């Protein structure tokens, strides 16, 4: 057999323009060393992997064999593994640790601290796209559900139809998630004022509390409970069959292993390293339906395909990676939903809130809000992305010069400001379904390093047009009677604030917020990310409609890398649902539609 593989007025405004992920060192642990917490006896460290750890062995080598090997224990991977384990032997490999004993992951009040941790074992791995925008990817069991803002809302019916999913099975899969880890938020005064302001400026009707994607203003769900504790996709593993599921943490997959002796390459297993750097091989059962399934996210899955020899031949050969399959589309079509923000100051400290209310407009823009995170002492002394205050300063630096060193210089200045300067919250404006796309390529063959990613924010004029409309809408929200009554700011103060916000940028300094050209420059100069990037393994180009990798057998991708748009206002609900949905679909296809699942 041929085997291929191995490899965050005036003075303070610049600080208050928000950032998604500018992360300053703040060490934290991903949990205790023992993971056998009653419901999770099957979670082990990667170094515990043994060829004799299963009751089923390969007759040829004596290794443990698995019906399914899932690479990535994240938002999709956890529900997928739990579902498949009901009938088959499943190995789930996660490069990060567990979230359960990590207070920074677990509690809403500490949300920003996790994002501040850029240590090698952090649950959040920072990266900067070539566009100069700071971003992050998850590195923890439960994936993005461990580091996000927790908002839970379903995709639109249009999205479900577009991707070709069975609506009946979708409507069975969403509640499976919701009944386990989703909660109704306890609304803060800030979020109520935000709701009233959205309705005041015409983002109507008011749809109340709902998971559904409906035009107008609504309250959505959250994965934070009433005590402020986060519930992640990792908890969905509690529904697994503990005798058929093995979860290894700190297991970093290096590459997929292929048999290339047949008509087309066939996945036979994976090579992974444990927390000590030792290598192991996990092997698929020798059955046609056995599969390696990539659920490593929109960066991790195309990166893994490339590292395993599936991608553009010239790019692979340049890095001396043996070519298993030449596919020019791997890593192409990468997109990120651009976000811009307006800081709203208050004359008093504000209760912390993450996303609870959303305005879904008919012109392709979502309006959300957060409050209180910039004012705490730990926040002022560290840099933590979405709730931080450095992006306005960073926006004065040309994108390719936005480095961690530049960030640190601004943090020092930030510490000299009075704490009162940070009282308030943010209005967030995000573009739905951006038409601007980019690509992902390997920077090197080290799987621990981030790939090189370009999103080409606002390259398409329609994206820029919608941003201008969105910023005008955000400005109206800030100036509404409900927000001015709540913040105790006058309209004049708000107008000065908006102009000062724009003046934070040095490329083309605009004079008026109602100047279209100036707002276009504002959009370009202050763009940030809300972590909803997607693409790289598109259906019809890299994978089939059922997410099997084209041109090879026994290999599938189940995560947001297959999406050409991010579902709903916030994607986590649909990515988790996708894991459950595809698990059920795989079981039905394999066992028959009448199988007892």
Automatic annotation (TrEMBL):
> Could you tell me which PROSITE patterns the record lists for this protein?
GMC_OXRED_1 (PS00623), GMC_OXRED_2 (PS00624)
SS bonds (residue pairs): 467-523
Q: Which UniProt keywords apply?
A: Disulfide bond, FAD, Flavoprotein, Signal
Write down the required cofactor(s): FAD
Record domain Glucose-methanol-choline oxidoreductase N-terminal: where:
138-161, 297-311
For molecular function, the Gene Ontology terms on record are:
flavin adenine dinucleotide binding; oxidoreductase activity, acting on CH-OH group of donors
> Which family is annotated?
Belongs to the GMC oxidoreductase family.
Protein name in the entry: Protein HOTHEAD-like
Provide the species name. Answer: Cucurbita moschata
């Amino acid at each position: 057999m041929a085997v291929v593989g191995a490899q965050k007025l005036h003075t303070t405004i610049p600080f208050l323009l928000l950032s998604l992920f500018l992360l300053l060192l703040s060490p934290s642990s991903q949990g205790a060393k023992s993971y056998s917490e009653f419901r999770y006896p099957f979670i082990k460290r990667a170094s515990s992997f043994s060829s004799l750890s299963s009751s089923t062995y390969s007759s040829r080598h004596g290794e443990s064999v698995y019906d399914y090997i899932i690479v990535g224990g994240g938002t999709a991977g956890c529900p997928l593994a739990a579902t498949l384990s009901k009938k088959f032997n499943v190995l789930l490999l996660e490069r990060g640790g567990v979230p359960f004993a990590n207070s920074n992951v677990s509690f809403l009040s500490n949300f920003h601290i996790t994002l501040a941790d850029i240590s090698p074992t952090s649950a959040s791995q920072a990266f900067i796209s070539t566009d100069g925008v700071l971003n992050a990817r998850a590195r923890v069991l439960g994936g993005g559900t461990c580091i996000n803002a927790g908002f839970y809302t379903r995709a639109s019916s249009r999205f479900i139809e577009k991707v070709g999913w069975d609506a009946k099975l979708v409507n069975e899969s969403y509640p499976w998630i919701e009944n386990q880890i989703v909660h109704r938020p306890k609304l803060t005064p800030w979020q109520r004022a935000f709701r009233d302001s959205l309705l005041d400026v015409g983002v109507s009707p008011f749809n109340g509390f709902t998971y559904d994607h409906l035009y107008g203003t609504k309250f959505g769900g959250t994965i934070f409970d009433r005590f402020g504790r986060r519930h992640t996709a990792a908890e969905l593993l509690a529904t697994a069959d503990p005798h058929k599921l093995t979860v290894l943490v700190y297991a970093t997959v290096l590459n997929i292993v292929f048999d290339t002796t047949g008509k087309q390459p066939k996945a036979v297993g994976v090579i992974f390293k444990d927390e000590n750097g030792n290598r192991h091989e996990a092997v698929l059962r020798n059955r046609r339906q056995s599969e390696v399934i990539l659920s490593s996210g929109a960066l991790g899955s195309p990166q893994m395909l490339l590292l395993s020899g599936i991608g553009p031949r010239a790019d692979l050969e340049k890095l001396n990676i043996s070519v298993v399959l030449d596919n020019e589309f791997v890593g192409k079509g990468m997109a990120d939903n651009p976000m811009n923000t307006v800081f709203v100051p208050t004359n008093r400290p504000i209760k912390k809130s993450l996303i609870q209310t959303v305005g879904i407009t008919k012109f392709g823009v979502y309006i959300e809000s957060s409050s209180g995170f910039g004012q705490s002492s730990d926040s002022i002394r560290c840099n933590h992305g979405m709730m931080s205050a450095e992006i306005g300063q960073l926006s004065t630096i040309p994108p390719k010069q936005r480095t961690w060193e530049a960030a640190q210089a601004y943090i020092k200045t930030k510490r000299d400001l009075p704490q009162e300067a940070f009282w308030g919250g943010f209005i967030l404006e995000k573009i739905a379904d951006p038409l601007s796309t980019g690509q992902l390529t390997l920077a090197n063959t080290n799987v621990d390093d981030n790939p090189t990613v370009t999103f080409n924010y606002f390259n398409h004029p329609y994206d820029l047009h919608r941003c201008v409309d969105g910023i005008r809408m955000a400005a109206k929200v800030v100036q509404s009677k409900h927000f001015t009554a709540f913040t105790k700011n006058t309209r004049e103060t708000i107008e000065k604030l908006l102009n000062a916000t724009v003046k934070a940028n040095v490329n083309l300094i605009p004079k008026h917020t109602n100047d279209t050209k100036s707002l276009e420059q504002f959009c370009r100069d202050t763009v940030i990310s809300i972590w909803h990037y997607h693409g790289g393994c598109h259906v019809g180009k890299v994978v089939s409609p059922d997410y099997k990798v084209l041109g090879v057998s026994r290999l599938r991708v189940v995560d947001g890398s297959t999406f050409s748009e991010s579902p709903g206002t916030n994607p986590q609900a649909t990515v988790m649902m996708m894991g459950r949905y595809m698990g059920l679909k795989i079981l039905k296809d394999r066992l028959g539609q009448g199988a007892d699942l």
